[in-house]
Write a structure and sequence with these properties.
Blueprint lengths: L1 E9 L2 E5 L7 E5 L2 H10 L5 E5 H6 L5 H10 L4 E4 L5 H9 L4 E4 L1 H5 L1 H10 L4 E8 L2 E4 L4 E6 H11 L4 E5 L11 H10 L4 E4 L5 H12 L3 E6 L1 H4 L5 H9 L3
Parallel strand pairs: 1-4, 1-12, 4-5, 5-6, 6-7, 7-10, 10-11, 11-12
Antiparallel strand pairs: 1-2, 2-3, 7-8, 8-9
Helix pairs in contact: 1-3, 6-7
């Protein structure tokens, strides 16, 4: 089970949003690359990077910053936010990003998404971001009209390599994970699933661990909990390692 520390970039800073709202921002660092390196030193084995500027604006000013993070780290990096065509995907991968996450393209442009998966096999995941059971896109501001169950079969057929599931109502709230939704998704997915949204304490990691033992839950993304010290990253990783 992998714990993915999240570094969300907005206006050149490492931030966290509450429930995906661009107007509810907490700034944790003016140096996102240093923050990424800090999590690696704490024992992280994979970094989750979110380009919020790209997600909200559709284009990114963070090329050099992302390149700096990938260069400084020895662990792999996955990145999401504003990846809506092959050219932008290729640019990030050429800069050293290991794999990419798309939401808007996957849900709104199936032909283009399938082509992206064929071009970069095994390196394109999908972010399924749900509020009250309905999927959102374009930085969580557009209702797609789809549920997870309606969208998942086509995404898997198109070549999605992994799925990230976020319960928007819990994101940044430290209110606990949505276990029933995750259990349902894991049963229906033929590719690894990553949980996101709501992790607050080590108890949440322990609650998710049985799903990881099934082989379908690859890990969990953590953000505000490790920044505000309700979850100790090193302690959580030691607990996971102790489970054998």
């Amino acid at each position: 089970m992998i714990i993915f520390p999240a570094v969300d970039i907005k206006n050149g800073q490492a931030v966290r949003l509450r429930q995906g709202r661009a107007d509810d921002v907490t700034v944790f660092s003016d140096r996102p690359a240093d923050m990424a390196l800090h999590w690696q030193k704490q024992g992280a084995r994979f970094l989750h990077l979110v380009d919020l500027d790209g997600a909200f604006d559709g284009r990114s000013p963070n090329t050099r910053l992302v390149q700096s993070i990938c260069t400084r780290l020895s662990i792999p990096v996955q990145l999401g936010g504003g990846i809506r065509d092959t050219d932008s995907a290729r640019r990030w991968l050429d800069l050293g990003v290991t794999r990419l996450i798309t939401g808007t393209m996957a849900l709104e442009e199936p032909t283009r998404f399938a082509s992206l998966c064929r071009t970069f096999p095994g390196r394109i995941g999908v972010s399924l971001d749900a509020a009250n059971g309905r999927l959102k896109s374009r930085g969580w501001v557009t209702d797609t009209g789809l549920t997870v169950d309606e969208a998942l079969p086509r995404l898997l057929a198109d070549g999605a390599a992994f799925i990230i599931y976020t319960d928007i109502s819990r994101d940044g709230m430290r209110s606990g994970v949505n276990l029933p939704a995750l259990e349902h998704l894991v049963r229906g997915s033929s590719v690894p699933v990553i949980a996101s949204g709501g992790v607050a304490t080590l108890d949440d990691i322990k609650a998710l661990h049985p799903l990881a033992r099934s082989g379908k839950l690859e890990g969990v993304i953590v953000g505000r909990a490790i920044y505000e010290n309700t979850l100790d990253l090193g302690e959580a990783m030691r607990w996971i390692d102790g489970q054998g």
